[in-house]
């Protein structure tokens, strides 16, 4: 057992505290995860290509192990994700001859997939990222070009929420995206979600991925995004929080270890962010990190191959970093 207070207790009156996990980290970080977190998300194991790599041939082994890990430790679970342009699978958009399928076929496949996956974890998963990253980053287009959009048209989004709601009426259904605090994209996300609500689509929350760094987005832009999304009366969740040491366009590869100065900046940044999040505790229902400790992060190879990163509250030995102590003091 550990000397420091548990994150889930520090924020017990505010929101759930989550971590993304995978088959490696449920083994190598079990003690840390069980002590600090009361929600988990499967990092990749519930994505389309993971659970239905071939039509009708579902592979739930890894997802089931992660769900069992959550039950073992009494943790709640988020589901990620049902409809996305990435980590999808080739067969989905094609017939046996390799020609694109028609709209009705794609929607039927989407429905079968959503019903099967959501039904399997019904009652365990409290929130699903039903649709992930469909907003266009640049330009005037609202929606990102994708096979989903090309074949099925924009209404695949509303249908996805309806199918998920049919499968588990008790789960909170989320639209999830990144760059969610950039003013332009924020307004587009708002426009999409507002139009879904106006059509009576069962959507209950907005997921802010929160792949942030020491410098961006500004606290003002985070606040403006939280205000705008909360004005829709929906729950908000931070779904993939990490605090990269590097600006997104910083391509340096020569930083082998974080300096004391970097760790201090990160501590100040985390403190400021969690102070702000606590102000929105009526709207925010969970804050999930995209990992737990610095020995495993997807940022070790992204966006700069081979570069390490140290985005979390716990170091590579799972000990609390300066950032942890700063946010623990907010209780
Ligand atoms: C990432 C995983 O962390 C990586 O392991 C994988 O190689 C790619 O996907 N937005 C999302 C997440 O919604 O699913 C992504 O996860 C990170 C960006």
From TrEMBL:
The keyword Hydrolase applies. Pathway: Glycan degradation; xylan degradation. It catalyses: Endohydrolysis of (1->4)-beta-D-xylosidic linkages in xylans. Keywords: Carbohydrate metabolism, Glycosidase, Hydrolase, Polysaccharide degradation, Xylan degradation. Pfam families: Glyco_hydro_10 (PF00331). Gene3D superfamilies: Glycosidases (3.20.20.80). It comes from the Bacteria. Its EC number is 3.2.1.8. Residues 1-330 form the GH10 domain. It is an enzyme of class 3 (hydrolase). PANTHER family: ENDO-1,4-BETA-XYLANASE A (PTHR31490:SF90), GLYCOSYL HYDROLASE (PTHR31490). Belongs to the glycosyl hydrolase 10 (cellulase F) family. This is Beta-xylanase. It comes from Paenibacillus woosongensis.
């Amino acid at each position: 057992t550990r000397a420091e207070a548990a994150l889930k207790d520090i924020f017990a009156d505010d929101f759930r505290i989550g971590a993304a996990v995978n088959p490696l980290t449920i083994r190598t970080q079990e003690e840390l995860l069980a002590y600090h977190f009361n929600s988990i998300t499967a990092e990749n194991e519930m994505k389309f290509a993971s659970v239905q790599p071939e039509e009708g041939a579902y592979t739930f082994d890894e997802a089931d192990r992660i769900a069992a890990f959550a039950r073992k430790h009494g943790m709640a679970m988020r589901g990620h994700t049902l409809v996305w342009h990435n980590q999808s699978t080739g067969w989905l958009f094609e017939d046996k001859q390799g020609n694109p399928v028609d709209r009705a076929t794609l929607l039927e496949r989407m429905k079968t997939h959503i019903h099967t996956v959501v039904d399997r974890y019904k009652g365990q998963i409290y929130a699903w990222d039903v649709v992930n990253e469909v907003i266009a980053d640049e330009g005037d287009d609202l929606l990102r070009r994708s096979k989903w959009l090309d074949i099925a048209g924009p209404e695949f989004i509303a249908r996805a929420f309806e199918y998920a709601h049919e499968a588990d009426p008790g789960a909170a259904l989320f639209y999830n995206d990144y760059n969610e605090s950039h003013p332009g994209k924020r307004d587009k996300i708002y426009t999409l979600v507002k139009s879904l609500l106006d059509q009576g689509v069962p959507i209950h929350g907005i997921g802010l991925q929160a792949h942030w760094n020491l410098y961006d987005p500004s606290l003002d832009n985070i606040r403006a995004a939280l205000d705008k999304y909360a004005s829709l009366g929906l729950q908000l969740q931070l779904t993939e929080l990490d605090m990269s040491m590097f600006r997104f366009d910083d391509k340096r590869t020569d930083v082998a270890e974080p300096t004391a100065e970097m760790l201090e900046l990160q501590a100040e940044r985390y403190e400021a962010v969690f102070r702000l999040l606590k102000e929105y505790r009526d709207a925010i229902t969970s804050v999930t990190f995209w990992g737990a400790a610095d020995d495993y992060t997807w940022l070790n190879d992204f966006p700069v191959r081979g570069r390490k990163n140290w985005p979390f509250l716990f170091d590579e030995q799972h000990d609390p970093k300066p950032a942890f102590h700063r946010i623990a003091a907010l209780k």
